[in-house]
Amino acid sequence: MKTSSISLRVADFLRQHPPFDALTETERVELAAGGRVKFHEADEIVFTSGEERGRFFWVIQRGTINLYRPTESGEELIDVRVEGDLLGVDWAEPEIAYRATARVAQESILYALPADRMFEFCRRHTAAVAFLQAYFTVRDPAERGPLAPTLVELEADAANWLTHATEVNRRAANRLLTAAPDEPIQVVAARMAPGMQEAMVVVDADRRPIGIVTETDLTARVATGIVPVTAPIAEIMNTPVVTLPRGRNAGDFLMAMLRHRRRHVVVTETGGMDGRVLGIVGEKTVQVLHGNMPVFLAREFRLASDVAELQRLRDRADDLLLRYVEGEAPIDWMTNFIAQTDRMLAEEATRLAREKLMAQGLVEPELPWAWVAFHAEGRKERLLRSSQRTGIIHADLPAGLDPGPVQRWFGALANELGSVFSVCRFPLDHLGRMASNPQWCRSETAWAESFRQWIRHPVASNIITLTPFFDLRAITGDRSLVANLRAAMLADIDANPEFVPLLATDAMANLPPVTVFRDSVLDQSGGVVDAINTKSNALTPLVDIARVYALGLGLEDATYTPDRYRQAAESLPEHAGMFETAIEAFDHALRLQTRVGLSRGDDARFVRPDELTRTEVQRMKAIFRAVAHLLDETVKHFGLRGR
Q: How many Å apart are CA 38 and CA 46, to the nearest integer?
């Protein structure tokens, strides 16, 4: 009776903490029955780094346990574990020796439980697996092992469908109808009607796509009498066709529709128009299968008649984004979704601005130009709405052309666009780093000269305040202007080898905290604060170090932080594990900041530990470890002084 009573009390305690809250009551009681209760006084050692792992792991019922990693000069505090935390369990590599030493900081009561039973029970439950994968035991990112296999299917939720491929590809083949370009419209329409097909692919003799015909084409051009029903279908088809290869998931189809503002994507053998047609996917197909469709935004943005409508659509995008974040949608997909949404916003804002300037009698210069984003938007990482950091790059003026009217038009355009974005809740930059400032609205040559001076004289230029301008991306307009500027910038960096190490030194400024425990954050100096700075503690160092490697390696096309790390891993395979860990850390940090920010309605720069789920707390600890390791290895790679 006594043993049974203790087991029930232990099981009741476990029920309050993950991953055990995901287990059944029977599993918790059985797990508790195989364990024991242990008391430890202050300074006692629970286990030592390098010691062979035993058959038990521990759950802290009361007290505080510090974890230390051995160093050349002694040991380093790397984590603080408190009530409900786990000790001595490694989900990825359960047989490996302990990686840290666990020392009791305050007298503690621990529940020692059988590890094999815990692994067996947890593998039955998705939520338990997800928590344990986030809760990887303190480990060096350079010694990454594979994650323990997930033995259960992930449950369908608000966004997991983005990664599903089988059903959408099956539908693509089942709903395929094709027509030759010379077939009469009335014959093609008759074939479309019985199956209520959304569209038909027009193909050549080798079944390669040359166009697509939709219900809208038949209604707008044939039913109105503009084109006779006896005309060949080629007269009303849309070309070129948006294509993808077979096997792509629902998220890929959606992104292609958003990017190209089309309602249909054709599947071909090669993924291009040179391949044989295999199927067709329309927005209605994905809507029927999965719901949560953002493709309507492409249509509605184009129909927006005023700024108020643009604001409503941008707010709707945030509503969708929150659902995707909560549903653990891939971070790459979400950043692309918002980047495409903001591109459509910029394009329609430009259309409205042009109409207004024309009505005022201003004449647009006949010059190539591009609307450029810097900072987070330049990297396609702005999930939460933040200050505008924009610029305009235009081609050099021909000799003899009066610059006055050109400057007035671009200045007026920048003011109009800035006003639209402000209404859409993108604040003005308090330092004036916007296209409405003549300093950031210049010719291609003037921009190139600015970068050249920053690179040649980084200290005099106060380069640490200018690094966001090295993350630039054309949102709308002539993208070749930005490509040319980036090529010139990398050539100047190559000619000034001291520039990148100086950037690397500046990137050392943001040191991560040691850990999170209870409702506090322990910083590197041993001080305790009550909030995590998601920007300086996590995102900024990850972004800054990625930029350093990208510029140092001359990665022309990479601005998105995970892409920079992926390409850096190809050039520096000896650091591939570290870069992979940095990508995961970035994913978790941006996802966490976005969820909290959308929920609170702010930028989520400061987040209290009690605002986070237990899984997010463990992920934040892992982020701190990843950033610390990344900084240390960057110091070695660039030969810097130790941080």
A: 10
